[in-house]
Amino acid sequence: xxxxxxxxxxxxxxxxxxxxxxxxxxxxxxxxxxxxxxxxxxxxxxxxxxxxxxxxxxxxxxxxxxxxxxxxxxxxxxxxxxxxxxxxxxxxxxxxxxxxxxxxxxxxxxxxxxxxxxxxxxxxxxxxxxxxxxxxxxxxxxxxxxxxxxxxxxxxxxxxxxxxxxxxxxxxxxxxxxxxxxxxxxxxxxxxxxxxxxxxxxxxxxxxxxxxxxxxxxxxxxxxxxxxxxxxxxxxxxxxxxxxxxxxxxxxxxxxxxxxxxxxxxxxxxxxxxxxxxxxxxxxxxxxxxxxxxxxxxxxxxxxxxxxxxxxxxxxxxxxxxxxxxxxxxxxxxxxxxxxxxxxxxxxxxxxxxxxxxxxxxxxxxxxxxxxxxxxxxxxxxxxxxxxxxxxxxxxxxxxxxxxxxxx
Length: 408
Ligand SMILES: *Cc1c(COP(=O)(O)O)cnc(C)c1O
Hints:
The structure is a single chain. By secondary structure, this protein is α/β, with parallel strands linked by helices. It has helices spanning about 20-25, 55-60, 75-90, 100-110, 125-135, 150-155, 180-190, 200-205, 240-250, 260-270, 270-290, 310-315, 330-340, 360-365, 370-375, 395-405; strands spanning about 95, 115-120, 140-145, 160-170, 195, 215-220, 235, 295-300, 320-325, 345, 355-360, 385. The strands form two sheets. Strands 1-7-6-5-4-2-3 form a seven-stranded mixed sheet, sandwiched between helices. A five-stranded mixed sheet has the order 8-9-12-11-10. It is globular, with a radius of gyration of 22 Å. Pyridoxal-5'-phosphate binds near residues 100, 200, 221, 222 and 231.
């Protein structure tokens, strides 16, 4: 790394203090003087990087020099984003992938071998479950699922073959919140590594590594990118633990184009102010929905009615923009009508972007599942998932008000 580059946190942005979130998201990970003295990072569109002569190749290999070699091993813009996200997450390092799923797969494939077992808390993104159940199983890796928040069940499921404990926090779409210290302690007690998918939290709301968790994974497609215009993912942790993951990524090639890296870097500049608004909107919308007669249940960790309200309040700064609710006395078609009547909220999967999105998990993610199977995943027929964007909360609330107003 050249002296002009700043590492995650040991930079000289502010004398002797840890910079604030926005200062980090604007400046961390970037060179002070850039190409052509530009204030913004150049998008270096190169799939390969040249060497002056044979000796410089040998020097590069023998001295592990920090420079480009071939695009699959990393491009300059990717390093900037990895360092910026490491600074925000208070991690030593991050490895960027082409999507959140590629990050999850990259971590699992680097760390697990035939005969190993992993244990999951059962509320999770349906594709994460699918990867474990359908694909890791083909390579002789066993996935055990225990009820989210049942720490005793997780502990009893651990055997000498267990290599990884996995959970989301908050979980999708129930927004259950983990006691991260307890989760990390179980891992430590049995010498099993722990991973949190913290996509729904972001480091603005909680930093799982500070609780002793080994790996944090994010779909950067969501709040980090923030504008519904890119896919990316990242695994963060200690440099030591990430080395194998980075090496395997260089083999499998789930990397981002230079242009995608730049979009992510640009999105991150406004990370803190977007998160403040997502948190504010989520809270206000959840409170509105809870008071609405046509809503029978609201799942939002910032509401005292949520099962994990206490631990959420103690450990998190805010609770994000995702709000899950159920329409009173509604079958799936009645609930669809509420979705279809929304005008400001757009019907789409995903979350964390500036636009408010609305969807019905039964239709969007669990269509074709047997009713008992859906029930076992806690997906009810009348459930709606609203991902608040950064619009004005009064407008989102008014939209929901009119969408819930009639029953026909
Ligand atoms: C979206 C999402 C993922 C998958 O990320 P992609 O970027 O879509 O591959 C994983 N976990 C959670 C919690 C998500 O919301």
